[in-house]
Structure formats: structure tokens, C-alpha cells
Write a structure and sequence with these properties.
The protein is built from 39 helices and 2 strands. By secondary structure, it is mainly α. It has a domain at about 590-665. The protein has a two-stranded antiparallel sheet with strand order 1-2. A hairpin with an 8-residue loop joins strand 1 and strand 2 (about 790). It is elongated, with a radius of gyration of 35 Å. This is Nephrocystin-3. Pfam families: TPR_10, TPR_12. It comes from Clonostachys byssicola.
Amino acid sequence: MDASKKHGLAQDRQSTSATTDDVVSTAREAVRNAEQEYERKHVETQKAKINLAQCLQAHGDFEEALSLSRTVLSKAQDTFGPRDPETFSAMHHLTVLLAEQRRTAEFETTARTLIKDGADALGDNHPIVIKVTAALGLMLRRQSRLEEAEKLMRDAFEMSERSYGSNDERILESIDELARTLLLRGKVEDSESAVEEAELMMEEALDASERLLGTDNTKTNWRRAELASTRLFMGKTHEAEELMEGALQRYRESLGEHHPDTIWAQAFLATTDAEIQDIVKKSAKALHDGLPRVNVMITSLIDNFTDQGRSKEAEVLARAMLENSLRDHGNDHSDTIDQREKLAALHQRMGNLDASSRQRRMALQSRQRIFSHNHTGTIEAVDLFANVLKDQGKWEAAETVCWDFFAVYPTPDQPNHFALALMATHAIILKQLQKYELAEKIMSEVLRHRRTMNGNDHNLTVWVVAWLGGLYIEQGAFSQAEPLIRETYESKKRVLGDQHVGTLIEGRRLVETISRRTIASEDVAFVSDLYEKFAQIFGHEHEESILLGQQLAILLNKQGKSDDADALIATVVERRRAVSGDHNLATLWVISCQLGMLQEHRKYDEAEPIAEGLLAATRKIAGEDHLTSIRAQNTLAIVKLHRKALDDAETLARDSLERSLRIYGKGAQETTESASTLATALAGQGKFEEAETLLSTTYRMGKRRRGGKDEDTVELMENLVHVLKKAGKHGEALKWARKLYEACQQTLRDDDRVTLRAREKVECLRGERQPGGEGDVTVPQSVDDSTRGFGNGQSNAVQVVKLLDPPAVLARAAAAREIPREEKQDLKGECPDLMWIQKLHVDLALSDSKS
């Protein structure tokens, strides 16, 4: 740019600034004249002050503008009374300033007061009431409170129709806003009916606009273009192009080739790269020339280019918008901040996180300088900056940004939408940093306010409930997760219907939590019904159907219906092979599920070669250090334990543990699983000290990282109690048994088998009773009417062998919904219990070595 042009631009900026200053000065003079000619509380004086507040707002003097507007309202209430039209007029002007400054909490409170009191005093068809109702709906729409926004938009439309009639131009705007709200809800909630209603409303608005304003009117043409855009979204490409071609022709005739609206219509129909580049050049020139509606046009183009994947073209226009605002207004102006945030969002979507982070930081700093710290725009800017840091992997820096904000602005009793969004972001960051208790506390607070503010079935509330459920699942606290996941499922079923994809997916998440506890008949019925819906909608070979079929097989097996489970899992394996092929981790995962069932049915001869093949295949596909390979190796170690190959089991488990420690760390779930298996192998060989040290150390690390409430930690504690008891450390065993029982009560249900066993352990170790004394210990009857009974005449050794490794008995007992009492009294009077089916009881290895 040459020197003369730079000088000209500088003069333009000075001229614009001087003009704005002149307007403010003139408005101040008008207030002084009104106060001298009338009096301070006269209507004309109040009008002059309202005009000054609007000029200050346009000049960027937000605090003074707001203070003056509040003063005008206060004096109007004192002078004319709270129900006078002049008072409502002053309140209306205050809501306008609050909305423009995005002070959403105060705006919503003031607007709702005006709507309620104004409807009583002026009637619900008064223009002020209609305007504020529509403005509140628009604000709620920006906050994604779409259900509330739609209701207000409908109210505004109906009031406009009653007040103005169907042949008045003013009704068109209410139709437009209702249609946009419906369209947005349709996009967000994937609601076809909402989109179709939006299209009908837009057709009605276009017909009315052609009738009232004329076919070639600019506003009519703009509504024609908006309808075309909606039809393109609906997939009605031919109808959309036909409408837009008509709009483009009228734009050219009435506005000219280089008008922003004409350029926008050309962009809609452009298909080649050359046409797109021409649009970008024309848009940049229109922006530079300051043509009317150019900002609206370019913002729409940026959105369209972004949706089309034309990020470079969108970035060129976004950068031009920012540079134009910097030239006209300077760095700390609301328009400049908005343009900077739009460019940051585009950079973030393009994956240019460093550039996005820079723009977010500068936008936040500008907001902090010109707005208050608790301004909703500032809160949102903090949230956006923390999110881009999160996307960069700078979790600690993101956490610091959140803490810095809340240190200055503690969470109020009734936080607004933006404060809740920031709190949710903070909880997500804390979860990533494994600060689970604090994350849970913050998100639980968000949930409490969301229920109050939005209701239980609002999508934002449902998202928080689902997130908390996922947090508990990640910690292994499935009993705490289940009611939250169930609530999410029921909410989606009420809102979306029981056959909607979102409802079905949430149903499968619920099945995952159900499968972690004792299975009831109604659970299997629920999963069977869900499986049929998946198969009906997606087909049997769809990914979701295969996953749910696998889960159903696991539940059937847990309920003791082994034949049905074996048949279903075999079918699922074949379907997975047909879809994914043999050399795929998803296929191997289903095979590992089948392998687990073989173990539960004590078919160790069949399980061992499958486990060895599974380990070899996972290592070949994913590598030795992949999570799947580590778990496959641990599974093979468990099979070796059942096969009495304790040395092989120890070698495999020790190697699995070393890999888990190196890759996932001391407190990870994978490390806990490997440590528990290795400890079982060590104890089976009489290496109690090493097993005890391993288990206690792993427990401490797991508790520090996951909170000690997950099922893997509970299982590890159960192992530790057995090891201490076998090592003769009954005092230590009792202490850990009490810890185990407390953990079970927090993590599992009271009727869960592990909880019942933990209670038995405490009672036995305290010496309050010795189960298995007088009388027979009878195992519940199985589905095939076979029974096992043991009397006192049998030797203790025989009872040990028969009672300590009875997976088939457990499966049949589960089918009968009874808890077997696998207790015995050996020569030392000790009280053994059963481990999980996947783990080998220490006593089994000991009894084998003794025999």
C-alpha cells in the first residue's frame, strides 16, 4: 500500500472517530437543554437520556451507557409508577442495551419481569411486550435453550398476529424468527418434523412478503434465498437451486452485480474453484468499500465455505473481516472481538490450534479490559480459551485458566448458562488430569443447576447426566453409574422415542453397566428386546447389532443359560468375521468373549489353544505393547492357572505386569488386572510375601489414581485378604476384609455376590461364626435338576476340591437367582470363599499342591 493510501485510511479512521465523538457530544448537549427547558424527571428529558445511552453504547462506552439507562428506569419508576407505559419503555431500552452487551442473566430477569408486568398493565398484544418476548426467545436460542426459545417465538408470533393482523408487515419478522428456531432445533436434535415445520413457516413468510412488499422487494428476495438454503439442507437440491436462481436474477436487477446480497446468491450457486475465487475477491472488495449488509453477507459466506470444507477461502474472508474491524474500530471494540473470535473458531476447526489459541487469548484480554470480569461474554471467552488449550493437550495450562477465573469470580448461587458451561469444561479437564473427586463435585453442581434451569429432559441436562455416568464407569464404579445411564436412556426415550438411534445407543451403554452386576430376568428381557430393535433397524450385521449381541450372550451366560449363550456367541463370531475379517481386533475381541465363556464352563482344554492363538494374533496385528495384547496375555496366564501350570502363568503374568507398568503406569486398570493375576500365581506357589507386597502396593497406586471404588480394586482387595489369611496374618486379613466390605458397599449392590462374600469374610475372621459346621452345605438345584450335596461324613480335602472350583455350579445357581454358600471348614477351621470366575482361588492351587 502506498503512502497516500495509508494517509487516506488514517484520515478515514480519524473522521469516523470524530463523527462518533460529535454524536455523543450532541446527545449530551441535548440532555442539558432538556433539563433546562423542562425538568429532570420530564418525559422529554428521559427520552434525551435514552438517546444518549444509545450513542454511548455505539461509541463503546458500555458501563456509562448501562448506568445511565438504569438511572432513567429508576427515575421513571419513581415519577410515573411501576406500571406506567413510560416505565415499561425505559425498561425496554435497558433490555436492548443488556442484550447488545450480552449480559444474559440480568437481561433474562429484566425481560421476564417486563413480559409479565407489561402484559398485565398494557396487554399481551402491546408492541413492547411482543418485542421483548421475541428478544428473550432470541437470547435463549443463542444459549441452546431451544425448547424455551421456540415457545417464546410462538408466543411472539401469535401476539403479533392478534395485534397486527395477518396483512401487516410487522408479522413477517416473528414468522422468520420462529422458522429459524425450528430449523436450528431440527439440526441439533436431528428432528425431521421440526425442519419440515420450519420450511412451511418460511414458505408462509415468503408468500406474505410477496403479497405485502412485492415480488422484487429486497426483503422478499432475502426470504426467498433463506428458503432455498433450507431446502438445500433438506436435500431438495433442484428446488433450492431454482429458488436461488430467481433470487440472484432479482438481486442483479435491483441491487447490481457487486452488492453483497448479489454476491451471496452467486456463492450459493457457485460450483467451480474459479467461481469460488471470484466470489472471495468480490467479497473482499465489498468489505473494503464498506457496502451495506456486507458483514452479514460475508459472515454467511464464511459459514457456507466452512461447511463445504473450503477452509482456506473462509479464512481469507474471516481475516479480512478482522482487519477491517481493526482499521475502523481498533483492538478493544466489541465488533473487533467478535471477528477475532470467529477467526479463532475457524482456525480451531482447521486444526491450526496455535493460531486459534493466540486469537482466543487476545479476545479474552480485550473482553477483560472493556467488560467486567463476570460479564457473560468474558465467561464464554474464558471457556473458549480453556477449550483450545485442552485441544492442544495443554491440560495443566487449561486448568490454570479455569482456576484463575473462579478465584476472582466464585460460582454464584444461581450461575448463568455460560458459567455452567465453563464449570463443565473445568470438570472435563480435571477428569483428564485424573482429579476424579473434584471433577465429580463440580459436574454434580452443574447437574443440580441444569435440572433447575433447564429441566430433566433438556439436552444439556441429559449430557451432564451421561457424562457423570461415564466418569463413574471410567473409575469402575458401575453401581453408581447405572442409575445415571438409565436416567439418560429414559430421557432420550421420552424425547426421541424408543426406536431413535440416539435412544438405542444409550440403551447399549446401559447394557454395559448392567452386565457388571448380578443379572435378573428382567435385565435379560430388556437386552433381548433392545437387540431385536437394533437388528430390525440396522440389520444383524451392523456394528451396533454385533456389539449388543455379544453383550446379550454374556448376560445369558451369567444367568446360567449356557446353551443359549454358546449358540448366540458363535453366531456373533461368524457375523463379526464376515464384517471385519479374521485379522481384525474387533474379531479378536469377540473371540476373547467366547474364550471367557469356555473358561467359565471349565473347558480349559479347549480354552488353552484358543487363548494362545488369540495372544499370537493380537501381537501380530497390534504389537506386543498394545492394550489388547496385554489383556490377551493376562487371559492366557489365567488359563494356565486353571491348567495348574503355575510357572508358565507366573512368567506370562509378570511380563504382562511389566508392560502395563511401563505403558499405563502404576495405578491403571490394566496394571491392577495383571498384578492380581501374578499375585494368584505367586500365592499358589507359596510365595505369600511377594504376593502380599505386590497386591498392597498396586492397591495404593490404584486408589490414588482411580479413587479405590472400582470393581478391579475390589477384586484385588479380595485377593489380598486370601493371601494374608493363607500366610497366617489373621489380624491384617481382618483389617483388609473390613476395607473390602466397605468398598463393596460403595461400589456394588448389597445383594451382589462379592458384597455377600466380603461380609462373610469379616464375620468369619472375627470368629463370630464358622459356616459349614453342622448339617449339609447344599448347592442350589441347577436347571437340569442335578444337585451336589456334601455331608459331614466326607473328608475336608474332598470338600475343598469339590467346592473351591465350581463355575458350572455358580452358573446354575445364578440361573436360579440364588447365592450359593460355597463355604467349608478345613482342618485349620478357616473360612474360604470363591474368587471371580476369571481368577483362580488361591486355595485351589494350594489344595492341588497339597494333594
